[in-house]
Amino acid sequence: MSVLEWFLEPTNPGPVGKVEVNPPEPDDDEPPRKWLIWFAITLGFVLVGIGLYWVFNNLPVSGIEPVLFKLSWLTIYVLISHFVKVTPDYTNVGWLGGLIDNPFRISDDYNRWLALFQAVLLPGKLMAYSLVMSWLIGRHIYKRHKK
User: Fold this and answer.
1) Chunked in runs of 10, what are the mean pLDDT values of the chain (147 residues)?
2) Which terminus of the chain, N or C, has less C-beta within 10 A?
3) pTM surpassing 0.70?
4) Boundaries of every domain in the chain
5) How would you class 114 by CB atoms within 10 Å of its CB: exposed for 0-12, middle for 13-18, buried for 19 or more?
6) Are the beta carbons of 76 and 49 closer than 8 angstroms?
């Protein structure tokens, strides 16, 4: 971050993305394709399996506290990923599509941080999506089978 960014940003402010907690559902006219839903669910379950492997790998002989500690952090990460929506403004991430930092705007640095935060939350969003969708599909199948 340069001194130029601090002094020249007020003269030409750039657009900045946003962070929303529990945003409303978008009004999409076209639902996603079935193969995309199944792919996201499958990828989410693979990530859940990797997360659970990380939690239960090298079980300690001393007790269960380290396992519960890791499991609680994984749960917190998935919950934060599910409820927080990060939307950077990709029109202001630097020059040449984000390859070069804009030395005159600090707002592009904020958008870069938002893009990084969005990338960090993506695996947790996929895990949460797969768990929620499998719950909804299982509940639908159970209700149909019960009749």
Assistant:
1) 61 78 78 83 89 80 78 92 90 74 76 90 92 86 82
2) C
3) yes
4) 3-7+35-146
5) buried
6) no
